[in-house]
User: Fold this.
Amino acid sequence: MSNPDIYLTMDAVSKNFGRFTALAEVTFQARRGEFICVLGPSGCGKTTLLRVVAGLEKQTRGKVFIEGRDVSSLPVSSRNVGIVFQSYALFPNLTARQNIAYGLKSRSLSRQAIVKRVDELLDLVGLRGMGRKHPAKLSGGQQQRVALARAIAVSPDLLLLDEPLSALDAKVRVMLRGEIRQLQQRLGITTIMVTHDQEEALTMADRILVIDQGRLVQNGTPRQIYDKPATPFVAGFIGAMNFIEDARKIEKGLYDIGETHLSVSGENGTGRLPAGSRVTLAIRPEDVMLKRDPSVSNLLQTRVEAMEYRGSMFRIDLKRQVSEGTSFTITADVPAETVRRLGITPRSTLPIHLPVDRLRVYEAGKGS
Ligand SMILES: Nc1ncnc2c1ncn2[C@@H]1O[C@H](COP(=O)(O)OP(=O)(O)OP(=O)(O)O)[C@@H](O)[C@H]1O
Ligand SMILES: [Mg+2]
Assistant:
């Protein structure tokens, strides 16, 4: 029985190019109306995944289902998808109107019906009055709006966007981000958007799929991905993360980082590791607290090595001497007001507190 809430199912999809594995056993589902971002570094397989979903590329193994129907062998024409490609590829010799109308021509619509639909679409993407312009006369952001209008012209059930914003400057990108999200919600269209911009994924997505070297390494909401990254790779790829290497497990919830023990509550599935196991502890810079109260647990003496001014806060590198010749560095994001109030300067000694519930534990050597 198929679940009516699920629009798309990818079941253990692999894609090889010759001997190279571009996708390895990728499994996930997209709910109807959901906005999914596929995030990962260059070359990790994002475009390949989108092309397999669209039917532009046939998977080597595994299956693709749309509304419970096996479409694994069906071509793009029978999947009702709208696509905005990585390089936006408008037809340069056609006007904005003609570009948008392109997919409508093959449908049996009257001339007037097409004109009306294109007018609607131009309005929808904020390009009223620009229909007669050729792509060369439009800005990057306007061209991307045309590409988007062209993709949704045929009322697809699934919208696939491959880095639609990456070629645009920062301001336009942020504006279009909001517009795409609103449009997607208004139309209620299931959308998969590829990006390698973590901020884009965190702000736009209902759910993020993180891909590393063809493997799906985490599938979760933006908050889950940011707060509970499944692997050191995810932790380091999305946001900044401090890693304390060479830690050793003493018992469940207690770890030795050399001269000091740290208590941890979020053990990330490492709770089962035997005592003595080598682990890596991790904490985000904004979770590193400044505390002088000696009764607090997880307190470390550190020395300020470097301070970088970032407007509302300072990013401060803190050195922790473990023993003679061994030390590690922890980066803390400290509000500018706190820095002023405490008079923190380079070489100050600074006690820091690592909250038990903000520390993560990873098995050493796993998934970095
Ligand atoms: N047609 C092909 N033939 C051979 N190798 C390919 C082909 N298409 C993609 N690849 C390889 O598969 C891997 C994944 O490519 P893909 O285009 O999916 O990456 P991506 O995550 O979209 O990267 P980017 O962020 O740079 O766009 C790359 O190593 C690429 O070289
Ligand atoms: Mg790509």
User: Anything to note?
Assistant: The chain has a mean pLDDT of 92. The chain is about 25% helix and 35% strand. Residues 170-187 form the longest helix (18 residues).
